[in-house]
Amino acid sequence: MPVPQRRFHGDEELGKKDDDHKPGVKGPMGRAWQQRRLPNGPRRSNLKRIALGFLVVIGFYYFFKNMPTDLEQPRQRPSYVPPSGPNAPASKAVPNRYDFVTKTAEDETPDAPLHNFNGPIKFYQLASTLHGVKTRGSDLVNQNVLFAAASLKSAANLLPIACDTAIRARNYVHFALMGRDDISMDILRSVNGIGNDCNIVFHDARPDFSVQSSDWRMEVSSAAAFKHINDFVNPQATFVDSSGDEETWFSKGLKQRAGSLGRTVIELPENAEQNLMWITLLDSSSLSAWNKVSINIIIHAQPSASGSLIRLLESLKKADFFASSYPPLTIELPHDVDEPSKRYLERFKWPPKGDQSGSLLTLRHRIPQHSLNADESSARFLEGFWPNNPSSSHVLVLSPQVELSPLFYHYLKYTMLEYKYASNNPSAQNLLSLSLDLPSTYLNDTASFTPPSANSTVGGNVITTGTSQFLWQAPNSNAALFFGDKWVELHDFVAESLESQRTLPTPTTLNEKLVSKTYPSWMEHVLRLARARGYWTIYPSFETEDRLATLHNDLYQPPEEYSEEVNAEIDQSDELTADPDHYLSLKHSETSLIKTSILTMLPNKGDLPKVWDMPLLSWDGEQIVVDDFHRQAVNYSNVFRREIGGCGTDDMEKVRVDLLAGDLFCLKDQKT
Ligand SMILES: *[C@@H]1O[C@H](CO)[C@@H](O)[C@H](O)[C@H]1NC(C)=O
Ligand SMILES: *[C@@H]1O[C@H](CO)[C@@H](O)[C@H](O)[C@H]1NC(C)=O
Ligand SMILES: *[C@@H]1O[C@H](CO)[C@@H](O)[C@H](O)[C@H]1NC(C)=O
Hints:
Layout: H1 8-21, H2 28-37, H3 47-65, H4 126-131, E1 144-149, H5 152-168, E2 172-177, H6 185-191, E3 200-204, H7 215-233, E4 237-241, H8 248-260, E5 265-268, H9 272-275, H10 284-288, E6 294-300, H11 306-318, E7 329-333, H12 339-347, E8 361-365, H13 374-382, E9 393-398, E10 402-404, H14 408-421, E11 431-435, E12 454-458, E13 461-465, E14 470-472, E15 479-482, H15 484-503, H16 522-533, E16 536-539, E17 549-551, H17 563-572, H18 598-601, E18 616-617, H19 626-643, H20 667-671
Parallel strand pairs: 1-2, 1-4, 2-3, 4-5, 6-7, 6-9, 7-8, 11-16, 14-18
Antiparallel strand pairs: 9-15, 10-17, 11-15, 12-13, 14-16
The protein binds 2-acetamido-2-deoxy-beta-D-glucopyranose (3 copies).
One 2-acetamido-2-deoxy-beta-D-glucopyranose binds next to helix 19.
Protein name: Glycosyltransferase 2
Keywords: Membrane, Transmembrane, Transmembrane helix
Region (Disordered): 1-44, 72-93
């Protein structure tokens, strides 16, 4: 993991220059900043301390709130503007480092502040910390993330997560308090058990007269404070509390301004500290993609298989989508929809919790009554999705046999953000898909598959763990997320392949069907593309028997395009008991599903391994090194070009174009 200290040389120069020109920064704040950066072994304060701290904060809060006025440092009272309407030119409030609160003994503060002050906004405390930012805050792309809160309860919810994020050292963590409460930042820190080891940069972003401010003034102030922080810190992601403890004016003001500035806001739900802690393991680049990615779910329902479809939809309904928006869901229905499915779908709502955003459910019904052949079926299936933006719009393919863990979306979003969107991640271009399913057999479905064990790197040391996520060239059709860019390429690849089948003689060596007929026909195309390009799928692995997805074979139906053949063989072999070598996956017993936080279920406490540390398997299960893997892909694509692409031996090798497979085919050139 990158240790931030390494990056400080350039920053320190910049920071120093900055300081030299601007007196006042090298105060006690500057020194505290230096101390915090010292690499003393970070130690996370335990939960008890935080809980205790939280009680103390409430105590302090009420103590200060009801403090006898003669004890309190009297502050200058604003001249109260008659509440005739909003009159604060908020956006003009520029942080001024030379402003100090002038304390004059004047009238008393009323017991319950009236929240009716609407005057111009000044941030007296913000400038000094913002000018002190030394973490490449001026770069548009950097490693800064911000946690922002107005209510003290929300601050207490966020701070442990902020501290963990800072300790992981992938990001520079900033915390901004934007609320009304008159608590000092030091007390906020200490009651929440945030020591110097947490390495958080605190910003006091409260406006002047916050205690007396109207809600409207506070909303404008939150927006303005975010703008100032954004100018100096450029946070790649801003975490706010959405558990219900937060002030409405804050959420509104900050989210609107962040939206207009194009900044990512991550809303942490109530139980974030229990099961969303994987978020602290992501880097700023992944976090900034949080709201930009969209996942579409597509389910290909089969005729008279209502039982499995209903079971899958029920498991989707129970899934936890935390603070993410619900993924749109498309169900492809066969021509004959059976009665139970019809009745179930009449009542089925997606998203399940009625919110204003409207329905995200699409039903597609097929017209042809006859069963489709393999090619028609492949084309039809792939047509079910098209990404509006190939780099951010992806598709989760689910077979109706699958039942999902309520936490599958945690794993999916976590691994997707890590392996597709982390910075310095060139291996992402070979990533075809993410599987939720850990298959029990090879693609030919006649031999059992055992996942490889592997080594992983923890803090620079290589340790051998029993289990590890692994890379496999074989795709998965039961439950897998295909990336938009690869899906677009697949469309082009299948289009050209089908054209070639129509016009060219049957290939000699590549004609063999490698994927079992228990899997849909489009899998064969995906496998060919993966072999020609050297693409892989990341498969999950778990410490226990629990899984993200389990397959139910009790209601198994073969893919329509193969149903006659498969059913004939199944019947012959007497309900799968006679021939142990056929359709082995159908005899696999169901597994239990993950119900607790995924961090506890994944190997290595959920710290995802680097791609290069994962074992790599070629499509037939052979463990292989990356160089050979790519050499095999070159070999395969040469054969493919000749046999299926219709290219002559003397044809020039064509240039590969992003998102297209045209370089593997020469058909069009011959026609023209
Ligand atoms: C794991 O590490 C051990 C020794 O460090 C090595 O012998 C073994 O081949 C490694 N396994 C994999 C899958 O890389
Ligand atoms: C199925 O695939 C496995 C792994 O590649 C292989 O060992 C086995 O021989 C194959 N079975 C058949 C019948 O081809
Ligand atoms: C690639 O093909 C050549 C010739 O057909 C063969 O000698 C070589 O072993 C193949 N390489 C790999 C990695 O399969």
